[in-house]
Amino acid sequence: MARLRTRHIALCAILILGIYFFLPRDNAPSYLPHFSYGPSSRTGTHALAQHMNDPAHIPDITASNSSFDWSSVKFTYSLPQTPLLPPPVAHRPRIQHRFKPDRADVAAVQEQRRLKVKRVFQKSWASYRAMAWMKDALKPISGKYVDQFSGWAATLVDSLDTLWMLGMREEFYEAVEAVAAIDFGKSTSATVNTFETCIRYLGGFIAAYDLSGHPVLLQKAVEVGDLLYAGFNTQNGMPVDFIDFETAKEGTGLRVESQVVSASPGTITLEFSRLSQLTGNNKYYAAVSQVMDLFHENQNATRLPGMWPMMVSMSEKDVTFGYQFTIGGNADSLYEYLPKAHALLGSADPSSKKYEAMSRFFMDTAMNNLFFRPMIPGREDILISGNCDVLQGGPRLDPESEHLSCFIGGLYALAGRLFNSDEYLDVGSKLARGCAYAYKSFPTGIMPERYNMALCPVENHRRGCAWDEAAFAEAAADRPQHKIDLPKGFTTAKDPRYILRPEAIESIFILWRITGDPSWRDTAWDMFQAVAGATDTVYANAAIMDVNAPGGGEKEDYMESFWMAETLKYFYLCFADTDLISLDEFVLNTEAHPFRLSKAKQSFEIKGKDRS
Ligand SMILES: *[C@@H]1O[C@H](CO)[C@@H](O)[C@H](O)[C@H]1NC(C)=O
Ligand SMILES: *[C@@H]1O[C@H](CO)[C@@H](O)[C@H](O)[C@H]1NC(C)=O
């Protein structure tokens, strides 16, 4: 059956290709069966189909309330109700390049690319819909599923806004009907992961609401937002990392963990601030502001002033004691959210000035201590983000990097525009090129999850140095994981997997939209072909075990929800109309969910341009 299915898809792909060849625009043909709406539906397929291409049409779908009302929890600890959400922003600096229409031949190439990305998404979506509907994730090889994020249909919620952007309106509203029934009063796990729930579920609902304006999505955002808010019912007002589900309902208070990774408490600002903006309820913004004030007050008191250690203690309110510093995994989105909070909250506001100051301080510190130009055989002017340990001897740069760090190039570029700094933009561009370089270097065309490179002599960390075979051999000999068959310049591929991560294409997308330099689109296309090819399975796409092996080696039977929420979305946006999710209208959370930048005197407006 699996084989049949692939052939069927391949046949249709050829047919569709043929049709597209003659059509100037995507008429949304699809190999998917016609959707039939369940008995709970209030919107017949026919009625929906008529309005499907009218972006202003909002089908009549009502949400069922969760079996527990999280807004009714009586908190043992009273939370502060200040600061107040800043007033709407009157002026923001321009972020995106002023694009002119592409020449017809260039536009035709981009259109082909866009449609190819869309077809890969459609295949993953169809399989999720057929085999893992309402489950957290599809297993793309066996066609089974897994619930690892409390069983609230993580992939479904995470994919909502991508469906919208790809113009899959019928599928979008089918998904809205489904999420309308999610019960946040029940969980498949006894504890709920604050971070994942915030970025995937809350972020997913907010973005889908910001794009479509469908009230069901705001209702579900508030339900899961109130669940997360219950995680702040603690003695010192700091959020717990894992919410004990049943205890949280009682309101008797939760115990804050003694040590957590800094990204966990540091990645709530955008979601809670936007939820306050959308609901007019200040409590979310007030709660998260207390957390960020703690980071702010201690930014200059760490072992590497400007940055915070990877591990922090929320129970002790101590964010200074650790010695390991990175902008990669465990810390990443703490940093990501500082410039982005500034973008969301605007620059006239004192708290946003705080986010600007925090952004500049960490960015200058990271430039001076974490980024390096590796020793490579060619002359490419690239930067890689490493790690920094601060022990007795002072800061020591470790040239180890990972796929997760690749978001940083895009973030510097964005900050370059937000804070009017050519230096940040230039550094961001070099960091993004560093990730593209790593992709290109490996035989699959994909970079490993984690790897090491060789440093130049210390005075040349930023300027780079000529290739030195002996020095490289010495650096490689220091690494037990070194393998002889690695691409030149890489001392290890410490973790050689590629698990469908988005961060590299995320930065390429932002650089494209900010600079308008078409070479970024070509880089994106090379990356897409490599990724789509190596990870393809019968049903969808899977993690691969070794980017340094021909074809990527074995595959793992797992497809993270971020594949459709982030990776394919960023690929798609590289080739789509540059007004679709303009960076002047949206700021994206760390799960690639776009939040609308509200302006003073804003009217809710749904762009017709989002049509596929
Ligand atoms: C859902 O909850 C809201 C507020 O808690 C309440 O006003 C409404 O009547 C409830 N709806 C249903 C169908 O129970
Ligand atoms: C951090 O502290 C140092 C030493 O007290 C001071 O010179 C510096 O200006 C401070 N930096 C910031 C950004 O507050």
UniProtKB/TrEMBL annotation:
Q: Which InterPro entries match?
A: 6hp_glycosidase-like_sf, Glyco_hydro_47, Glycosyl_Hydrolase_47, Seven-hairpin_glycosidases
Q: What is its EC number?
A: 3.2.1.-
The annotated pathway is:
Protein modification; protein glycosylation
Gene3D superfamilies from the xrefs? 1.50.10.10
In this protein, the active site sits at: E196 (proton donor), D332, E449 (proton donor), E503
Report TM segments.
7-23
Q: Give the required cofactors.
A: Ca(2+)
A GO CC annotation recorded here is: membrane
Name the residues that bind Ca(2+).
T590
For this UniProt record, give its keywords in alphabetical order, as a comma-separated list.
Answer: Calcium, Disulfide bond, Glycosidase, Hydrolase, Membrane, Metal-binding, Transmembrane, Transmembrane helix
Which terms in the Gene Ontology molecular function aspect does this entry carry? calcium ion binding; mannosyl-oligosaccharide 1,2-alpha-mannosidase activity
| Primary enzyme class | hydrolase
In terms of PANTHER family, this protein maps to: ALPHA-1,2-MANNOSIDASE, MANNOSYL-OLIGOSACCHARIDE ALPHA-1,2-MANNOSIDASE-RELATED
Q: What is this protein's name?
A: alpha-1,2-Mannosidase
Provenance organism: Didymella exigua CBS 183.55
